Amino acid sequence: MLYRVEAADAFVSALLFRTLARSSLSDADRALTTTVVLGVLRHRARLDHALAGLLARSLETLPAAIRTVLRMGAFEVLELDRVPAPVAVSEAVALARRHGHAGTAGLVNAVLRRLVAEGPSPPPEAASDPIGHLSVVHSHPGWLVTRWVARWGMEETQALLAANARPAPATLRVNTLRTTRDDLIGLLRAHGLDAGPGIVPEAVRVHGSLIGRLPLYEQGLCAPQDEGAMLVVHALADAAVSGSTIVDACAAPGGKSLHLAALMANRGRVLAVDVHPGKAQALARRAVAFGATCVEVCNLDAQEIGQRWPGAADAVLVDAPCSGLGTVRRRPEIKWRIDEQSLVRGTQKQQAILRGAAGAVRPGGTLVYSVCSNEPEEGPEVVRGFLSAHPSFAFAPFAGTFPQVVGGHPVDGVEAGEAHLLPHRHGTDGFYIARLRRR
């Protein structure tokens, strides 16, 4: 899995879910597998720093498979008490021999044995190189640390980096078309899982084996979803009422469309739009499994929504494609794939989708724009550019069931029509949510 994430740009969350769901591993080994895979990705900079001091050549010049084996071995040696160091080294050598040759196996053996004996090199000094220090200690790329320190300062950045390095809580959204939160919690506990209410009315926080949850997913009783993503839908809660027409402009995989259908009690229309035919078909199947009969799946480019349904929607949700930097706790590979140039490149698409979808909002209707990122280029700058070119829209305060306090901390911007959710403050993934009203 780690090799596929690096060599084939696979997404670790989906890869783990699919692989573990069909594996015959014990619960303990599933947990260990998850810990190693996510741990290597979360702590990659620290592991690479430790390995660099023991290699005569750059780690990046090694074959990807051997680089992966070294990182796995270093993670188990440095971070996992439950795996004895000799076992970690022996297993890494066996893997290196299987995926390389005798020479690479010897290299892995020598490097990891030295790591066990000597320990890792210390990180850069905080006083002389604060960015390098944070980058290694909290395993984030230096360019990202630099921009966050410039925006939020050293203390706030350190808190965010530390939060990103911790596992995100496992949260489920209850499908209220089929069950209640209390009943779902009871079913989860009957499967031996620790479950309780989350911070959103439809949210359940759960701890325990994935296997115990799978039957409930398949029955359409719940779906894994971050509470920040649920709050995006609550930004539309006052419009998601019986008889409304709501467009979800970038709908796949469908979590927000199905959530809207549940809030509307299946009375009205949710037009779930996605440009990819395969994703649209999968979304339609999910809607059937969830009993969301008011969801109509449309294979359409989001930029054409305003032409297809001009002024026909009470509300439009644009949950735009973005870097995903707000989801690093769940998808730690993202921080190693994104650079500043890619942030700028993505804004053109976000602006085009927002412009195209806005034409479907009726006069007096609501337009919500969201990204699972806290980067200005993907959030506030996109919305302000849109507003300067579309004076018929303006910011509108959040209403209905959207909370002003999440996780014990105020949500900045709610009264002004912009909400900023941050992992270290609110316990959710990082989100920017803008709520606009058409005059």
What attributes does this structure have?
439 residues; alpha/beta; N-utilizing Substance Protein B Homolog, Chain A; Alpha-Beta Plaits; 4 domains; eight-stranded mixed beta sheet; four-stranded antiparallel beta sheet
What is the straight-line distance between the termini?
50 Å
* Oligomer description: single chain
Question: What's the CATH H-level homologous superfamily of the largest domain?
Answer: Vaccinia Virus protein VP39
CATH topology of the largest domain: Rossmann fold
Structural account:
With 439 residues, this protein is α/β, with parallel strands linked by helices. It folds into four domains: 2-118, N-utilizing Substance Protein B Homolog, Chain A (Orthogonal Bundle); 130-164, no CATH class; 171-224, Sun protein, domain 3 (Alpha-Beta Plaits, 2-Layer Sandwich); 229-438, Rossmann fold (3-Layer(aba) Sandwich). 47% of the residues lie in helices and 16% in strands. The protein has helices at residues 2-7, 12-21, 27-42, 44-52, 64-79, 85-99, 102-118, 130-137, 142-152, 154-164, 181-190, 214-218, 227-234, 255-263, 277-289, 305-308, 334-337, 340-358, 380-389, 423-426, and strands spanning 171-174, 194-197, 203-207, 222-224, 244-248, 268-274, 295-299, 313-319, 361-371, 393-395, 405-406, 409-410, 418-421, 431-438. Helix 3 (27-42) crosses helix 5 and helix 8 crosses helix 9. The relative contact order is 0.09. The mean pLDDT is 94.
